[in-house]
Amino acid sequence: MESNVSKSQAACRAILEQRLGVHVGRVLRRLGQDKPRYVRLEVLPEDRARVLAAYDRRCVYCTAEKGVHLGIDFLVPPSREGTAHPENLVASCDACRSARKGKHLDAFIESRLDLDAHAVYARIAHATAILRAGAIVVRRAA
Question: Is 141 among the domain residues?
Answer without folding.
Answer: no
